[in-house]
Write a structure and sequence with these properties.
By secondary structure, the protein is an alpha+beta fold. The chain is about 40% helix and about 20% strand. It is built from 5 helices and 4 strands. A 4-stranded antiparallel β-sheet has the order 1-2-3-4. Helix 1 packs antiparallel against helix 2. The two termini are about 20 Å apart.
Amino acid sequence: MTGPGEVRASDADREETAAALGAHWTDGRLDEAELDRRVSAAYAAVTRGERAFDQAPSTIVPDLGAAGYHLVESQRPERMHFEMRGALRSGLPLTLLFLPGEGGGCRIVAFGEAPRGVRKGLAELRD
C-alpha cells in the first residue's frame, strides 16, 4: 500500500526505466545478472519513488562515479550510501534518501560531504 503523497508508477514509467537499464547494459555499464535484477525491480516498482530509486543506477550513480564516489550500500527503495575514493579525498561519505515528494513524485535528499560540482548536480535533479 502506498503512503500519503506517493504516486503509483505507471506501466510507461516502468518501460522507460527498463529501456534506460537496457541501454546501460548495451554500453557495458551493467552485466547481465545486474540487468536482470534491476529490470525485475523496475517492473515490480509500485510507486514513483521506487522508480526513481531504480533509475538511479543509470542516472545518478554514473555521475557520482565520475566524481570519484562509489556506491557502498543500497537499501531499496529508500537509501543509497556512497564514499569517495581517490588520492585527494578518500572516505568522504554521501547518502541519498528517496522520499515521497509533494504532489506525488519523489524527493531526493542528500547529506554528507561533496565537492561543489556534485552538490550542484544533485540540486538540479528533477522528477
